[in-house]
Design brief:
Number of strands: 20
Distance between the termini: 39 Å
CATH architecture of the largest domain: 3-Layer(aba) Sandwich
Bound molecules: pyridoxal-5'-phosphate
Oligomer: single chain
Shape: elongated
Structural class: alpha/beta
Number of helices: 18
Length: 492
């Protein structure tokens, strides 16, 4: 099984493990005051071009989020965040457990805009009862967002300018910051992130470390007593040097950026493969998380060999899923997945929509001497008793089945498959779908007629459990021919 479910499936970069082993028996002071933490802080300040910043190491993302947020807010304040923000939907109410409400703003792409922050602020202060509701006290964003989207430099700067004007500290959750900075779509640098936020963190857990997040506080007003708060929130690791060693390694010779770049590059290969196959994307992500929308039947095919995350149902037959690459993802694993995507059987069985009728009319004319006109098809489509099942391959309509369901019986009027797509099981799949419909609607019997000379079709139906019930003389015209009557009892 190859895992694309998350970006923390592997341990740590080998250089980190080597350094941990090399320093294992050294004795240092605890709680992050050792020389490794100090050196890592220096390296991070340098990389972020923020010589005055305070840098603190915590263990995980949720812990970092609630520690920073509860440190910044006063008791009556809450934090503005996208509704999709990790603190709002995936942290078990950790922020709320500190006594601060998350004030969710609507967002479809995971981002929030400066104008939304301004509006939330003004709505609060223009409310005559504002003292009776939670006051917005800071702003939380994630970059990349939970949806893999990125803030542009312009957007971040504009958010920061608004936040400064409104005196709302801006906090950036960088659990996947490396993957954001190295994205081919990014115009932000680490120095920009430091310049246009009040506090942010550099995620290690998802980007090469065993665990650990580095909080960078650039706003002097937020620095006071932060270590007390880390300790009070259970985030001060006694063997703090384990964090220092990891970030020192990640920020030596650009390792943090190299490993993130690797994951992004592989994710872009995957993205291209999904698009080439014709699968739309739920979010247009240029980071290590990709969100293709696939037919559920094809997800079943992939499940045998790969793990990935379910994101949301798009309709009855399609789901958006999440594939993550990481700093440790092997190129061979991505190539294997791409091969399987390319070879995936993309047959989709569904119901005809009005927009399919012209295409079905064309196929009728190509296949049947007594072709139904588009008008006749439209009338049939509009009838309550008729069902039109379609088969598509790579998005193209290649087959259809028309049936009338009346008084417990299903009369199959047409089954057609494009000449070049025959003998690939397409008609069988449409028939299976018909059986499901019959089961739902308590239909006990299927009936059909077929030209006596159409031996292939007769043998197909026999194979599917139909029996010959007799002949209807001279049923067909153009050319004139007898019809074989066939039927099949369905188990109720
Ligand atoms: C944006 C973001 N922030 C924070 C976290 C929380 O990290 P942890 O699971 O280490 O608490 C995650 C985890 O997926 C995340 O995606």
């Amino acid at each position: 099984m190859i895992r694309f479910q998350c970006d923390y499936a592997e341990g740590a970069h080998p250089l980190i493990l080597e350094k941990l082993i090399e320093t294992n028996l050294e004795q240092t002071v605890g709680y992050g005051e050792d020389p490794y933490c100090e050196h890592a802080r220096e390296l991070i300040r340098k990389a972020a071009q923020a010589p005055e910043a305070d840098v603190h190491f915590l263990v995980g993302g949720t812990q970092t989020n609630f520690t920073v947020i509860s440190a910044v807010l006063r008791p009556h304040q809450g934090v503005l965040s996208a509704g999709t923000g990790h603190i709002n939907v995936h942290e078990t109410g950790a922020v709320e457990a500190t006594g601060h409400k998350v004030l969710a703003l609507p967002s479809d792409d995971g981002k929030i805009r400066a104008c939304q922050v301004r509006k939330a602020y003004e709505d609060h202060w223009n409310d005559a009862d504002h003292e009776h509701v939670v006051q917005p006290g800071m702003v939380y964003i994630s970059h990349p967002t939970e949806n893999g989207t990125l803030y542009t430099k312009e957007e971040l700067k504009s958010l920061y300018d608004t936040c400064r004007e409104l005196e709302l500290p801006l906090f950036l959750d960088g659990a996947r910051l490396g993957y954001g900075l190295m994205s081919p779509a990014s115009d932000l640098t680490l120095a920009d992130v430091a310049a246009y936020t009040d506090v942010f963190y550099i995620g290690g857990t998802k980007v090469g470390a065993l665990f650990g997040e580095a909080v960078v506080i650039t706003n002097p007003a937020l620095k006071k007593d932060f270590r007390y708060l880390i300790k009070q929130n259970g985030g001060m690791l006694a063997k703090g040097r384990l964090l220092g060693i990891q970030f020192e390694t990640l920020f030596t010779d650009g390792l943090y950026f190299q490993v993130a770049d690797h994951a992004d590059r592989l994710a872009m290969k995957l993205k291209t493969a999904f698009l080439k196959k014709g699968y739309p994307l739920r979010y247009d992500s240029y980071t290590n998380q990709q969100f293709p929308i696939l037919p559920n039947s094809q997800l079943e095919q992939l499940k045998g060999q790969y793990t990935f995350g379910f994101w949301e149902a798009v309709d009855e037959a399609h789901s958006a899923v999440r594939f993550c690459t990481s700093w440790a993802t092997k190129e061979e694993a991505v190539d294997a997945l791409i091969r399987d995507i390319e070879e995936m059987n993309t047959l989709e069985i569904g119901r005809a929509g009005m927009e399919d009728l012209a295409k079905i009319g064309q196929m009728e004319a190509e296949i049947f001497p007594d072709a139904w006109s588009e008008k006749a098809l439209t009338e049939t489509w509009e009838q309550k008793t008729s069902v039109m099942i379609t088969a598509r391959k790579d998005g193209e309509l290649i087959g259809y089945l028309i049936v009338y369901l009346v008084e417990g019986e299903g009369e199959i009027a047409r089954i057609a498959v494009k000449q070049e797509k025959r003998r690939q099981g397409v008609a069988g799949h449409m028939l299976l779908e018909l059986e499901n419909i019959c089961e739902e609607q308590k239909i006990g019997r299927l009936l059909l007629e077929v030209r006596e000379s159409n031996l292939d079709a007769i043998s197909f139906y026999k194979d599917k459990g139909f029996t010959e019930d007799g002949l209807r003389k001279a049923y067909y015209t153009d050319p004139k021919e007898d019809a074989v009557l066939m039927s099949r009892e369905l188990g109720r």
